[in-house]
Each structure stands twice: as C-alpha cells, then as structure tokens.
C-alpha cells in the first residue's frame, strides 16, 4: 500500500521507512525544501510539498495515501494538534489505518510499578499536552478510521537517540554525564524492533488499539552511563549533573530524564506476534553501534 509517513527523515521515521519499503510498501513524505526532498528521495520516499506545521499540506498527503503513520513531533501542541486533526479529518469514513506516535513518558514516574496499556497516564508537563491528542486519535475509531497509538519506550540503536548523549559527554568530557542520582530506571526499545512493531500494527492492529513498544527490563541510568563510558573509551567514568543545575540548561526536559519507569510490551507480543530480537541497550552502548 502507499503509506504517508510524517517524520520520514527522523530517527524513528528513517528506520521505519527502511522496514516498510522492505515489506513492499510505497512511501510518501512531506518536504518543505529541495534539500528535504532530495533526502527523502535518497531514502526511497516520494516527496510531496508541505510541512508538518501546515495542516492543509498534511491533510493532502493523508488523503492521497492508503495509510498514514505519524512519527513527527515538534513538542508544540499548537503545531502537533492541528496536524493530527488534519489527518483525522482527511481519513474520516475511509477505514484507512492511522498510527500515531506518542511515548512512554505519558506514564510519568511509575513508582516501581510495571505499567501497561491499562495503566492511567500521569505525564510530566513536557508531554502533558499529548494525552488529549492521543484521546482524539483513539476516539476517531468511531469515525471510520483504523487508529492505533504506539507509546515507544526510550529508543536506542544505530548510535542515535537519547543514549547517544552519554557517549557524547564521555568523548568530550572524559566521563558520561547523567542527570540526578542515576538510580532511576528507563525502559527501552531498539529502533529496528520498533519499526517491526509499526509494520505489524499497520497490517493487523484493530481500530482504537493502544500499544507499548517496550523490550526487556528497565535499566538504571547510572548503568547506562557507565556502559556508554566504557564503549567511548572513558573507562567507565561517569559524573552526576545535579537536577536544578541541569534544569537551567535543559528546562522541563529534566523532569522526563529523572523519571523512574518500568513498563511491559507483552500486549504487542500477544496481540500482534511482535518478537523483538536486537541486542540490549547495555550491549549496544558498550560494544555495538555506539562504541568506538
């Protein structure tokens, strides 16, 4: 089928584009500039003029496709909300699939509990706006759209994503830096396992489905930093960045980085037959795509 993919040149989107093309799907994506169009073309994605901040171009891309997957976000509800609404209006009554990307931070600090799709969201301020967007997407199943919401855990792999920050600080400063005590735990999913989940959801997920993209147990942030440090040649050295000091630089992003979260991806495995198979995050940091 022809899939309209927002965020096609981003971290998740580029891995997903590869997976969808390998499965035989044709892809379109928004391009604001010629440089963006060239980048999409090189990745096998047909560029269409437009921008995520322009609801009319988003709607046009959605209307022309057989399915829509949105991996783009600006973290600005004034942009993301209208873009998603444009997609929903364009697809209403079509029974076409629409997959919306949310995130694990929607659960806030889980207090040692393992959360799943039945757990209530308690998002920090950084992503609190996203819950109402999720609700509109899932409710649109009643409007004749096969809507799916995926909440990925912290995404790793291919030497990119949030874990790359540990590696960068280890190389530049001689120690991998983390925010807070480092005792909090993060759940993870490899970007290529996540791409597999999107493909399965596109093919098989029922309308109104919510899925967590999570693999394996959560990992303490200090362990992550130490593994990244070893992989970067800094011999396991780490350094803590006090929360309030970090807040001066990172703002509300700090509140997400200090969350302690445990989560389960079993529903996706049971409902769709998802089988994550890539190396775990500690292995990847120390000896895989981040190392060297």
Rg (C-alpha, Å): 19 Å
CATH topology of the largest domain: Rossmann fold
| Number of strand segments | 14
Largest sheet: 7 strands, parallel
Helix and strand run: EHEHEHEHEEHEEHEEHEEHEHHEHH
- In order across it, which strands form the biggest sheet? 3-2-1-4-5-7-11
What structural class do the secondary elements suggest? alpha/beta
Shape: globular
What is the top-level CATH class of the largest domain? Answer: Alpha Beta
Mean pLDDT: 97
Q: How many individual domains?
A: 2
CATH architecture of the largest domain: 3-Layer(aba) Sandwich
Helix content: 40-55%
- What are the segments in which pLDDT stays under 50 over at least 5 consecutive residues? none
Q: Write out the CATH superfamily name of the largest domain.
A: NAD(P)-binding Rossmann-like Domain
Determine the strand fraction and express it as a percent band.
Answer: 15-25%
Distance between the termini: 40 Å
Account of the 3D structure:
With 292 residues, the chain is of the alpha/beta class. The chain has two domains: 2-155 and 188-214, Rossmann fold; 159-187 and 216-261 and 277-287, UDP-galactose 4-epimerase, domain 1 (Alpha-Beta Complex), CATH 3.90.25. The chain has helices spanning 11-22, 34-42, 55-63, 77-91, 130-139, 164-173, 191-204, 221-231, 243-250, 253-257, 266-272, 281-287; strands at residues 2-6, 26-31, 46-49, 67-70, 97-101, 114-115, 146-152, 154-156, 176-179, 185-190, 209-213, 215-220, 238-241, 262-263. A seven-stranded parallel sheet has the order 3-2-1-4-5-7-11, with helices on both faces. Helix 6 (164-173) packs across helix 8 and helix 8 packs parallel to helix 12.
